Amino acid sequence: MITGKLDIPEARRQTVEQALNQFSNLLNSKSFLINFIHTLENQREFSARAKVYFASLLTVALHGKLEYYTDIMRTLFLELMEQYVVAKNPKLMLRRSETVVERMLSNWMSICLYQYLKDNAGEPLYKLFKAIKHQVEKGPVDAVLKKAKYTLNDTGLLGDDVEYTQLTVNVYVQDGGIDSIPVKVLN
């Protein structure tokens, strides 16, 4: 639907295209869209996965109208904040991303931050990731449980103190043309 290449029989093509244009016009109506989202969220069958898919499709459909998308999201977000304040649980908001608007917020932030991450922050974040990975792999890592001696995740921490030493192993590569490559490993 997004690319405009629909696999529809010619006899029904005009009717389907007209229906899609009318639906597109409805999506551009703020009151319709907000009521549509509320109606979907009130359905018991509307699972968390379906909410993620719907929010993603809505983001793609309205990507060209980011101001309108932001206005819809802002309206829904204010309603969500009011619900949490009335329920006296504002600390729980944005914890589990259970609503369409929370997923919309995530998508909106991805769109807005993309250029900055690409141009400025991407390389330092990648270097930080590689440095942390290097530090984790410096010490012993349990191959079965995926727990490590040096990790930021306390649930992935090796419980016992493991004694280890560093070894240099010569690795022979078949058809590589090189006799051997020295590789540092832990015993």
UniProtKB/TrEMBL annotation:
InterPro entries: Plexin (IPR031148), Plexin_cytoplasmic_RasGAP_dom (IPR013548), Rho_GTPase_activation_prot (IPR008936). GO terms for molecular function: semaphorin receptor activity. It comes from the Eukaryota. Gene3D superfamilies: GTPase Activation - p120gap, domain 1 (1.10.506.10), Phosphatidylinositol 3-kinase Catalytic Subunit, Chain A, domain 1 (3.10.20.90). GO terms for biological process: negative regulation of cell adhesion; positive regulation of axonogenesis; regulation of cell migration; regulation of cell shape. Residues 2-161 form the Plexin cytoplasmic RasGAP domain. One of its GO terms (cellular component) is semaphorin receptor complex. PANTHER family: PLEXIN, PLEXIN-B2. This is Plexin-B2. It comes from Antrostomus carolinensis (Chuck-will's-widow).
